[in-house]
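pls ignore typos typing on phone
flavin-adenine dinucleotide + seq
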Amino acid sequence: MTEPIDVLVVGGGPAGLATAIRLRKQLAQAGSDASVVVVDKAHRPGYHSLSGASFEQACLDELVPGWRDDRRFMANVVPVEQDDLYFLLGSRAVKVPSRVVPGRMHHEGDVTISLARLTGFLADRAVQAGVEIHSGFAARELLVDDGRVVGVRLGDVGRNNRGEPKANFRPAEDIHARVTVLADGSHGVLSTQLREQFGGGRNPQVYSIGIKAVAQFPGDNPFGTNRVLHTLGYPNPAGVFGGGFMYSMGDKSVAVGLILGLDWRAGDLAPQREFERFRSHPFIASLLRGSVTIATGAKTIPEGGWYALGRVAVPGALVVGDGAGFVNMARIKGIHYAILSGMAAADTIAEGLAAAGAAPDDPVRLAGYVQRLETRGVLPDLRHARNYRAAFRWGIYPGAPLSLVADRLPWRIPMAPDADGTRPGARLDRPDPGGMDGATFVSLSGALHRE
Ligand SMILES: Cc1cc2nc3c(=O)[nH]c(=O)nc-3n(C[C@H](O)[C@H](O)[C@H](O)COP(=O)(O)OP(=O)(O)OC[C@H]3O[C@@H](n4cnc5c(N)ncnc54)[C@H](O)[C@@H]3O)c2cc1C
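k done
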């Protein structure tokens, strides 16, 4: 991969694969054989995707027309028919009447999917379209020359647990590309470097951690099918943003998760233990009765929204998906923004390549990207929810009512970096909730580490 390539996409999640599929198709239609290469650090597509999500599906109609004809993929796509919000208080669960839940938080028309399967499906379509995908390669550094992104430096491959080269050792390579697309997800190494070098948002980016498990029911499924459930309140301390969720995944499985804003105060708050506390709440436990946990995972969500967006188009590079911060926390959704931004990037690059000279060092103009994000509704949605997350910076009780009017506030609610929220010496001293221990949880996540 040392030959200069035309378009390099770093990250093969929904954003990167949407970019690659649409771009390769556009180039083929224009009779161009320009190369589109995806590198992903996971050892196979979808392996780093955290499964079980509620998905706004319309964007797939445009990206992969006829996608519903794929019966294997459709076996895991479940239309949402029941959508509930509960407030958990101690051992009680109070249903929030649907009419008082803001429209943007409803899930009618959505489907629940396995994100890992969606990613695998998109990877197959990308390869069919002529995209090269290289799994198992982590990009480590953005290469910038005279204010222009010219490619990336990969990390070394094949070192043992003492850091010594193994038989399959490959030293770090530089990949030079006319256009580099950063699709490296939440807190991606390269998209973070780009923010630092080219400019971040008016608020710092802030994150939450999402802890998730897939539970399978060998017998009866008390949660039911075609159902999405969200919770507020317990077990999150009143000052911690977030809540729980459960999404049907077919007849016999459910994804269950807990989200906690990373600006919590107490040093002894342990997210995986709080997730077990959530699962042991009598209401949640009753919905999980008889289930077996078959997979686990944890991942951050960039939740700063509109005011945390930095530059997403710079000379030689575009940023798409979570790497750019295209997540709307009012809806806890990012997958369709990842796909929409990927398609916006593809159209911009196709136009730029067509207008640029054929020489590898002729600059490709990428100026139309931001306008396309407007037209495709990504930026308008984020602008509308601009103060949503920040409304919760003082905790859930002032935050919940404030969030209902936050989109009408004419000013920006400032946010501080997450780490500033921690108070030295602050503790919760909560009793251990029992449930799955941390080591078993990690073993079910499929994480591979050098020990
Ligand atoms: C707990 C939780 C629940 C969620 N629920 C929902 C939901 O219900 N609905 C919804 O719409 N959204 C949901 N989201 C958000 C959604 O998962 C993301 O918005 C979406 O996955 C973003 O896609 P992406 O392609 O930008 O990033 P990702 O899906 O994170 O993909 C990034 C890819 O880049 C690769 N990568 C990263 N760094 C490098 C590197 N240096 N070199 C090479 N490869 C790299 C990774 O391996 C990965 O494959 C949820 C997120 C979490 C954490």
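The longest strand covers residues 292-302. The mean pLDDT is 93. more later
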